[in-house]
């Protein structure tokens, strides 16, 4: 909830709006459902929130150029936690394109993201799994199996 407060305060510059947003989120079903499942989803939400916070800080605070670099690091870590976070990659690339004048920071951000992301495949390959293993399972086709009815 503190990250929600920081994001709203950084965007709106109004403390009471940030407090209200944090309280509303704190009492929401989404927050409590994720807090109830103290697994990968809550931990994943933490890293995605850090990713969002860095992106927003890059736009709001001109002096925080380190946020551009950290956004790549946090997105890379979040993909390790939940592979579906790779859906953030187009938004991340658009973000980097927007800050293309900050060549060094954009390069460091992209390199750090690419290294962390590629380590996921290298680790699996070193363990004897195919390179596509982060996106697949050796336990059958889960999409087809999910549509089968149990008799």
What does this protein look like?
It is built from eight helices and no strands. The longest helix has 24 residues, at 103-126. It has helices at residues 2-12, 15-26, 29-36, 40-60, 66-81, 89-98, 103-126, 142-147. The mean pLDDT is 82. It has 151 residues and is an all-alpha fold. The protein is flat.
Could you give the distance between the termini? 44 Å
Shape: flat
Summarize the biggest pleated sheet.
Answer: none
Give the % helix: over 70%
Radius of gyration: 18 Å
Number of helices: 8
Question: For this entry, what is the oligomeric state of its chains?
Answer: single chain
Strand content: under 5%
Mean pLDDT: 82
Q: Encode the helix/strand succession as letters.
A: HHHHHHHH
Helix/strand structural class: mainly alpha
Low-confidence stretches: none
Count of extended strands: 0
Write a compact overview of the structure shown:
Helix content is 72%, strand content 0%.
Write the layout of secondary structure elements.
Elements: H1 2-12, H2 15-26, H3 29-36, H4 40-60, H5 66-81, H6 89-98, H7 103-126, H8 142-147
């Amino acid at each position: 909830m503190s990250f929600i407060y920081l994001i709203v305060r950084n965007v709106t510059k109004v403390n009471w709006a940030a407090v209200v947003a944090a309280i509303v989120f704190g009492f929401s079903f989404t927050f409590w459902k994720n807090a109830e499942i103290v697994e990968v989803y809550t931990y994943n939400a933490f890293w995605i929130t850090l990713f969002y916070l860095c992106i927003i800080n890059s736009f709001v605070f001109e002096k925080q150029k380190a946020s551009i670099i950290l956004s790549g690091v946090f997105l890379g870590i979040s993909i390790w936690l939940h592979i579906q976070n790779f859906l953030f990659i187009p938004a991340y690339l658009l973000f980097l394109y927007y800050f293309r004048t900050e060549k060094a920071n954009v390069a460091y951000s992209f390199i750090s993201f690419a290294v962390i992301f590629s380590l996921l495949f290298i680790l699996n390959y070193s363990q004897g799994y195919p390179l596509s293993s982060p996106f697949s399972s050796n336990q059958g086709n889960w999409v087809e199996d999910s549509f089968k009815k149990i008799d």
